Amino acid sequence: MAAVDDGARSRRSYGLTDGPDVVVTLQRLVAEHGQDVNRQLRGRLEAHRSKQRVPALAAVLLDRDGRSACVSSGVSDLETGRSVDLDTIFAWYSLTKVITATVCVRELSRVGLSLDARVVDLVPDLIPGDRGRSHAYWKGMTVRHLVSHGAGFADHQLHAASWFLDAGETWPEPRSALREVLARRHWLSRPPGATYRYTNLGYALLGEVLAEVTGKPFRELVLEHGLRSVGALHTGFEPWVPRQGSGHVARGHVRRWTRMGLLTSALGSFSDGAVPGSKGAWLKVKVRKPLFSPHGGLWGPPGDLVHVLHEHLAAGHDPEHPLAEMQRIHCPGAGRKKRHGEGGLGWRVHTGTPLRLTHGGRGPGFTAEIELRPREGRAVAVLGNATFDAKSIATDLISCETATWISS
């Protein structure tokens, strides 16, 4: 089991200092509260890892005052047995959307554009030609609709092999590729703003909107204004490119006879063979990257999520904060689907007590989940190197007694 983030090396790696209100290590929490916080958090994480049968889990808990605790458990690669630690790089998958939305809110404000600007006016070359009713839908679509999953797209998931590339493959130009995809079929199934419907394609389009209005490539925008500006120094779009001070990349895994395992086997391009010694029960997942970065292209360590989530906790406490707008409902859910959350800007908003903001990322070999409780001033992030449902883990960790020690 890996060491907790209690050393100078790890703090330097994440750009943290020993100044006040920045980070409280688990040892200090133990001294202040007379409880073995290290054992409590690790014990909980290990229990979840065993129950979910995940090779490795890493989690961070933090509050709005900058105090945080980080724990990890398991191995980053079943074949080599290498231990996971807090520098290990995981695929974030759809957690990327929260970063994309954050950059959108900041950059539109900077260039003086409203969230209600029409998409057709910003990227007219990407809008398909007249197709009857759907053309009217395109004309009514705004940036707000894209960010809040209210654009009316019927794309479901775009995790087909054709949307991913291997390291070293020649990349098509994303804007041209997106233009071809949008022209290929009727993607819009309902008028913009009618109801919340989760979409990857909408975020692919949002990335091109942001590149157009800022004059910068999307990836450059995210790295500069969504990550480096808040201290997330070791997260990026290229997991195989070493970054100074960053750790090793975790191996993704899927259990062969699960839905994702069968899909991985069927697609072929994601499978890197069976894990030796697992009797075929586990498959190794090949590292691939999506053609369109805005909906799920980031890779990073758990420590960087401390920096990302901290500014959103600050926004939850201050209605005048530039990011506070992200935490209210912009596109309502419908019927029973409301229980899965409604459309904030990047966030799924769960009204009630407590108010919860969530987002998850799940795909071949990796799972990520974040939950933020703005009124309580707490947040949690969970990363794992297998495909599973991490919602219950995040909710348990943020609700447990240990989390109240961190925030007290």
Any overview of this molecule?
The chain is α+β, with helices and mostly antiparallel strands. The protein folds into two domains: 1-86 and 388-408, no CATH class; 90-249 and 287-355 and 362-377, 3-Layer(aba) Sandwich (Beta-lactamase). 34% of the residues lie in helices and 16% in strands. It is built from 14 helices and 14 strands. A seven-stranded antiparallel β-sheet has the order 2-1-14-13-12-11-10, with helices on both faces. A three-stranded antiparallel β-sheet has the order 5-7-6, covered by helices on one side. Helix 4 packs parallel to helix 9 and helix 4 (96-111) crosses helix 10 (218-227). Residues 1-31 have low confidence and may be disordered.
Topology diagram in text:
Layout: H1 8-13, H2 26-33, H3 37-52, E1 56-63, E2 68-74, E3 90-91, H4 96-111, H5 119-122, H6 133-140, H7 143-147, E4 164-166, H8 174-184, H9 201-214, H10 218-227, E5 252-255, H11 259-267, E6 271-274, E7 282-285, E8 288-290, E9 299-300, H12 302-317, E10 342-343, E11 348-350, E12 356-363, E13 366-373, E14 378-384, H13 391-399, H14 401-407
Antiparallel strand pairs: 1-2, 1-14, 3-9, 4-8, 5-7, 6-7, 10-11, 11-12, 12-13, 13-14
Helix pairs in contact: 4-9, 4-10
What would a concise description of this structure say?
The protein is an alpha+beta fold. The chain is 34% helix and 16% strand. It has helices at residues 8-13, 26-33, 37-52, 96-111, 119-122, 133-140, 143-147, 174-184, 201-214, 218-227, 259-267, 302-317, 391-399, 401-407; strands at 56-63, 68-74, 90-91, 164-166, 252-255, 271-274, 282-285, 288-290, 299-300, 342-343, 348-350, 356-363, 366-373, 378-384.
